[in-house]
């Protein structure tokens, strides 16, 4: 096949031709298509990406190009989706590498299959269609994270997973693991070019975030043929949501107050020893028995108990909330928390003044109500409590919901957060600009327990 330089040049020509084909069909993908450099890497038998390079074996490219050239168009688009959703950077967060690879491939192929461009369009197999149907019924939105949570929390069928891997895999993911293995940077195989250093990885990850946001904005604004982009717009919107941590958000609800406890930080040992030396057993300063703390004192938690919210999701929210509230570093021991159950009306208001009560409430919770959803009565009810002199130090309200309801128009005098379950169907498009969106997200350990 000629010398190394010639086959490398041939591989680059093939991939540049593929890139041009994709660009002519999808102009909005231009910067993203240009975001990957090309480099020959004989450590792979096929082709893959580390989000900086497309690493290819030229023999594979030439064989596929001669037999099934459309496969390379699909493979490039598949790898581009991996980059836009930053699957390679999330690989280290998942202990089951093989399962993460499968979930990332299913998610990538689902996006490519949904796009209506002739250059990447193929007839789906019956098996593939049945996989999509069953998985959408289970997780609703086919993202790699949601698929991983689903598989890891259910009884595994390894034979079926192997079949799905054969159906959906298109590229070599070994570069993803090498990105997180420092040993792969030392003494590299002569046929394996050096991998990107950590600084380049970070810069490239930021670039892909920007590319994903730019494409999402362009598709949403109608500047691109969004009707042909399939699920890409929606999934980019889902993936680019900022997942605010509960504890960080609750800090904004906190107030300053004296708390009965020894405060070693305010104690001056110099005066203490000076007094002991001059007067025997008479220190000039004693430990402060109070300290100023910044914690949460008053809080309203509203729970949407309408028919569209599922029992298991409400219970999950309560358990998560109880765990956060029980952490002493975030809340005063004596609190005033109102847990309001509501649908179209306020059904019940449970007042919690001791953190131990929160766990008892969560354990004994039962859905009440069950009608439609109107968020406004809760805000009216809270305002009435404030007028009566209750909730004096109220800094915020958290409203757990699936988002299907009527929102208030007027901004209240306290911060408001609408909380959505990130692995289920919800609609957050109607949330007012003055409110914060929060998303529940399981850890892998929690997923295994479910």
Question: How are the elements arranged and paired?
Answer:
Elements: H1 4-25, H2 30-33, E1 37-40, E2 47-49, E3 53-56, H3 58-67, H4 70-84, H5 87-90, H6 97-114, H7 126-139, H8 144-152, H9 158-168, H10 174-179, H11 198-220, H12 232-239, H13 246-251, E4 255-260, H14 269-279, E5 290-304, H15 311-325, E6 331-342, E7 346-354, H16 355-363, H17 376-387, E8 394-400, E9 415-421, E10 436-440, H18 444-449
Parallel strand pairs: 1-3, 5-6, 5-8, 8-9, 9-10
Antiparallel strand pairs: 2-3, 4-5, 6-7
Keyword list:
single chain; 450 residues; alpha/beta; seven-stranded mixed beta sheet; three-stranded mixed beta sheet; 18 helices; 45% helix
Proportion in helices: 40-55%
Q: How many strands?
A: 10
Output the structural class: alpha/beta
- The whole-number mean of residue pLDDT values reads 81
Unreliable spans: 255-263, 289-295
Q: Shape, please?
A: elongated
Taking the sheet with the most strands, its summary is: 7 strands, mixed
Total number of helices = 18
Explain what this protein looks like in three dimensions:
This protein is α/β, with parallel strands linked by helices and 450 residues long. Helix content is 45%, strand content 16%. The protein is built from 18 helices and ten strands. It has helices at 4-25, 30-33, 58-67, 70-84, 87-90, 97-114, 126-139, 144-152, 158-168, 174-179, 198-220, 232-239, 246-251, 269-279, 311-325, 355-363, 376-387, 444-449, and strands spanning 37-40, 47-49, 53-56, 255-260, 290-304, 331-342, 346-354, 394-400, 415-421, 436-440. Strands 4, 5, 6, 7, 8, 9 and 10 form a seven-stranded mixed β-sheet that branches. The chain starts with a helix and ends with a helix. The relative contact order is 0.09.
